[in-house]
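Listing S7. Sequence submitted for prediction.
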Amino acid sequence: MSNTILHKAASRGIADLGWLKSKHTFSFSAYHNPERVHFGVLRVLNDDQVAPGMGFGTHPHDNMEIISIPLEGDLEHKDSMGNTTVIRNGDVQVMSAGSGITHSEYNKNKDKPVKFLQIWVFPKTRNVTPRYGQITLKESDRHNTLQQILSPDPNDAGVWIHQDAWFHMGKFDKDFSVDYSLKRKGNGVYAFVLKGDVTIDGSKLHERDGLGIWDTEKITIQADSQDAEILLMEIPMN
């Protein structure tokens, strides 16, 4: 029998710094909820909006796999590895912080906000050599299917991280249904609804709701609204 935990959108932690508005699914910065520190190795799921021309100054990270998924606008990234890039909707960015990096992130536009998901995953190996990766995906490739955007394998579709994790995104027509079979025994799945309404294994979810499922081999996703979008994160639970 599978286990589930539901995190409604309105139950997330809130940070409002003026230039930054963020919703935290898990404990982060000033938001601490002892019952919501992580889900398996999924440590951070932040839903960020950065004001025009503003951003995060140079700051350090180590021993974390950091994934950024832009939803709207353009985010400029600079890091201590010498990368200066811009990520946009359709892109996926990954940094293995490993033994230590510094980076900054800014809204490149002076006239509109940038919205993106910032996701942190604990690595399975500590103190790896830091690395950066970025890809551009065709959003049409996730229409009524689950498009893989991340895996543990550098030769597989999407970006890769130092963890036995697989991320997928899907955008579905109303009443479309799809099964997802877990790729690794002992893993769980955290589903995050980007838009619309979906039902996963009988749980009804709405925009920005999150659902964690474990002790299962397969889940069924059904779109209850047109153009429903989800992010599916399969991750180790220990």
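Caption to Listing S7: primary sequence and predicted structure tokens for the chain studied. The CA atoms of residues 2 and 216 lie 5 Å apart. The radius of gyration is 17 Å.
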